[in-house]
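Reading a protein record of the kind used here takes only a little practice. An example makes this concrete, so a full record is given next.
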Amino acid sequence: MSESLLPLVLFAVTMFFTPGPNNVMLTTSGAAFGFRRTFPHLLGVALGFPLMFVAVGLGLGAAFTAIPGLQRLIALIGGCYLLYLAWRIATLPTTAPATDAAGEGKKAKARARPLGFLQAAAFQWANPKGWVIVISALATFTSPSSLDAGDQRLAQILVIVVVFIAVGLASSAA
């Protein structure tokens, strides 16, 4: 695995720093709410994606094979969640709302809030770019012979996860 560490890091930098749903949502949230209020969203992305990677790498694919409808159910739930997130982003205040005598604009701004940690972590399962990254990384940076050697596969997955967390935190913060 050591000979593929540099290519893995370059892969992660390329995947995490290029535009995608997470980067767009974090940029929008940071602009609307600031870094501090967006921080739970940032952590949800940076830690939720590696968690998804571990789940898929250690056998969610086998669950999809054993339960044919499971993948469709997750896709349906993910699609509904994407629509919800799109609505949340579309209704974010981009500028300070005009206030009337009753201060309704301030109330509307107070109700708006960025995604939380769990919402951002759950979004990773609906993120198409995330699935491409997971499948590509598993195919490229784990050895096929490790399918039977559980410990070796786990070690390879953990190395990838550490790289993904480090690069993901930097990308999300940027």
About this structure: DSSP finds seven helices and no strands in the chain.
